[in-house]
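INTERNAL AUDIT FORM
Audit reference: QA-55
Scope: verify that the stored structure record matches its stored sequence.
Auditor: D.O.
Record contents follow.
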Amino acid sequence: MPNNTPDRIRTLCRKRIAALPANSQKSLASLENPVVVIVQRNLASGRFERLARVAKSKTKSTHRPPSPLSLADYIDRVLFHVSREKERIDALERGDAAAWTRLRELLARRALNICRRYRKGAALAQALDFADETCLTIFDRLYPYDVSFEAWATTILKNLILGRYTRSTDAMDRNASPDSLDAPRISGGESIGPLSDLIADRLSDLPFERIENQTMLVAMIERLHSRDQRRVIVHTYFEELDDAAIARRLGRSKQAVYNLRQRALVNLKEIWVEIAAQEKEGEKH
């Protein structure tokens, strides 16, 4: 991307900020330099290009034309997440004990839910170990600011747990299918299949276990036409909520939540199939 120089990124950043309401401009003006550095870094790492490939895929279920992710749109996304997450990230980088404690507690709760799908009777001590390991990994990585921090951190946590419970030589650790992103979960008395099992093209060479493709998954969710479908998927698979809790949040019935999730999974599957086809076609050239 030869035209994506720091000066061009800065110019686009200023234009995007200038297009916002006056009160937002004032609060975001100080974020210009960090956003330029983050966007340049994500361009250099290939992260933007991966997300752009996802955005370019057409959503068949809504018959929408391809919608490429422009650099300006990506800057908007980074601006949004920088404005929401920078205070927390700055606190973590300073070594703020309270910020790290809050993160550890969040990850421990999510780790316990995930661990119990793989091993009955998983203890809090195990969840805390995974939370601590995830915190160490986060400490050594650069948050990309193009997805929510909690979704990014939870993805790292899930990958660590998968590495233990789906690849362990101990048979007791292998309760779940090794090619699942998550084990099936129960919501409202009915089993909900693992998200990767419901979406991923089994013939593709793009495993959902990799962090990069978790980013693709988040981008695919963002492409869902229905806001409620997006919310149901995030609440179910990222926040680990059951249907009753999701129904309360959305002000809908449990049956409506179930229907929204089923439609969303069909749409996500179609998006994923297109992405896999594009990846395979690209490998031929």
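Auditor finding: record pair retrieved intact. The chain has a mean pLDDT of 75.
Action required: none
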